[in-house]
Write a structure and sequence with these properties.
Blueprint (H helix, E strand, L loop, with lengths): L1 E5 L3 H13 L3 E6 L7 H17 L4 E3 L5 H14 L3 H4 L7 H20 L4 E4 L9 H15 L2 E2 L8 H10 L11 H8 L1 H12 L1
Parallel strand pairs: 1-2, 1-4, 2-3, 4-5
Helix pairs in contact: 1-7, 3-5, 5-6
The structure holds iron/sulfur cluster (SF4).
């Protein structure tokens, strides 16, 4: 049975594809990630998704559009209204903007599944140990209901190390931040890290 697999990136998809195939599914990739910035990074991750699909002979559908402007339009009101708190005060994967980001990607996946005769979908987001798993699950279930398809749930985090090893074997590009420009700052800004340490100490 075919299953639509939303791919947040190639490395996170390695274990998911392996596991789904072992379980008798035929995963078909779907790349829709307007949360990846800046442009050259988005291009790199898209190329990596294409390379991966080719290497493992998986069908892949791509939304070939860099979505920075739409992403900011949707998330900036939340980021701005908290005067920086969303970036500074919340631990990884618990940001208010992430809820919007998850919902957008999972909703589009459910919609694409419904429009293209897939009965069921899932996402490589459920492989990440950095995301808000329970929140994503709730959102995916509600998207599935809205579009009349099924959501396949599996806690792919169980294969964390195996997924890393597979991505290294396949020589895939491995990014070092989640995706959006805010997450890039959180990953690399020492000032932000210092500020967070100060806040979380109190
Ligand atoms: S940190 Fe990751 S999940 Fe959260 S908004 Fe940014 S790209 Fe999306």
């Amino acid at each position: 049975m075919k299953i639509l697999l939303h791919m947040c990136c190639a490395p996170c998809s390695c274990y998911c594809v392996k596991k789904l195939r072992e379980e008798g599914y035929e995963p078909v990739g779907y790349f829709f990630n307007p949360n990846i910035h800046p442009y050259q990074e988005w291009r790199k991750r898209l190329k990596s998704a294409r390379d991966f699909a080719e290497k493992i002979s998986m069908e892949l559908h791509v939304v070939n559009h860099y979505g920075l402007r739409e992403f900011l339009k949707k998330t900036f009101p939340v980021v701005e209204s908290l005067e920086g708190d969303d970036t500074v005060k919340n631990p990884d994967g618990r940001h208010n903007r992430c809820k919007i980001c998850y919902a957008w990607r999972l909703n589009e996946t459910a919609k694409f599944a419904a429009e293209n005769n897939f009965e069921i979908f899932t996402s490589s987001l459920f492989y990440s140990i950095h995301q808000n798993h329970e929140l994503m699950k709730k959102i995916a279930e509600s998207s599935a209901k809205q579009f009349g398809v099924k959501f396949f749930y599996e806690d792919f985090r169980a294969g964390w190390q195996e997924g890393i090893d597979l991505s290294l074997e396949l020589e895939l590009y491995r990014q070092n931040y989640c995706g959006c420009i805010f997450s890039e700052e959180e990953r690399f800004s020492n000032d932000l890290k210092k500020l967070r340490r100060k806040i979380f100490k109190n």
